[in-house]
Amino acid sequence: MERQQVTSSNIASIGYDADSSTLEIEFNHGGIYQYFDVPSQVYKELISASSHGSYLAHNIKGTYRYSKV
């Protein structure tokens, strides 16, 4: 999955696969996580958020299933 680099203290890059509704987050510490069944609107809001880390914490973590890659 291709990821877009972002400016964040915690997140290095963000990718999204619309066919599978999978969101992929690469963290600055090197971990990569995939979140499943994420609507495209949530991805769009995450990418455009003023704080990617805050949006992730409040709207994605604890809401969607995930797996470490």
Q: What Rg is obtained from the alpha carbons, in whole angstroms?
A: 11 Å
**Which residues form runs of ≥5 with pLDDT under 50?**
none
- State the assembly state of the protein chains: single chain
Strand order of the largest sheet: 1-2-3-4-5
- Tell me the helix content: 10-25%
Present the secondary structure layout:
Layout: E1 3-5, E2 11-17, E3 22-27, E4 32-35, H1 40-48, H2 52-59, E5 66-68
Antiparallel strand pairs: 1-2, 2-3, 3-4, 4-5
Helix pairs in contact: 1-2
Structure characterization notes:
- The chain is α+β, with helices and mostly antiparallel strands and 69 residues long.
- The chain is built from 2 helices and 5 strands.
- It has helices at 40-48, 52-59, and strands spanning 3-5, 11-17, 22-27, 32-35, 66-68.
- It is globular, with a radius of gyration of 11 Å.
- 16% of the residues are buried.
- The mean pLDDT is 97.
